[in-house]
Write a structure and sequence with these properties.
single chain, mainly alpha, Arc Repressor Mutant, subunit A, 3-stranded antiparallel beta sheet
Amino acid sequence: MAIVREIWASPDALAKQLHRLPGRTTLSVYKMADRLKLVKQVRPDTSCRGMIIALMSDGKRRSVAEIAAATGFSIKTARAQSSILHEERAMHIPEYREPYSERVYVWGEGEDVPKPLPMAPTLARKLFPRAPKAKTAGSTSRIKRERPEQLAGAWWPSADQTVVSAMHSMVSVGRVAA
């Protein structure tokens, strides 16, 4: 029990310290800590929430992707923590970036801008065009150019008559006939 208390008091992850309890699983250590009513200590400078707060406190506008890139966490984690901070009114949404109405957060309380309505596909293609595909003169598929005999049905007339009759028997009567 003393080792479990030491592990729980340490800011290191449980998986890094599990070697101190040979033959035990992480689940059994969690259960023991729960029975002892221990609370895991987290260093504020390495927690995701603490890093996002430290990053956003400069007042710059950032999207979730920018927050994730700056903190080193996944986009999923950064989105979840940003949503929690937004619900707690620690951050607000001053704008949405197109074309996908991506949320942009800024530190501090404030009014959220209403989410824009989705764009019609024709308008989205007009405002955000895709790069055109390069087409060459007389372009055809590689099979048509290199091996026209591989096209569907083109190889049957040149096939061996024995193979063709065996295939015909298998298809018409069943596999047993071959």
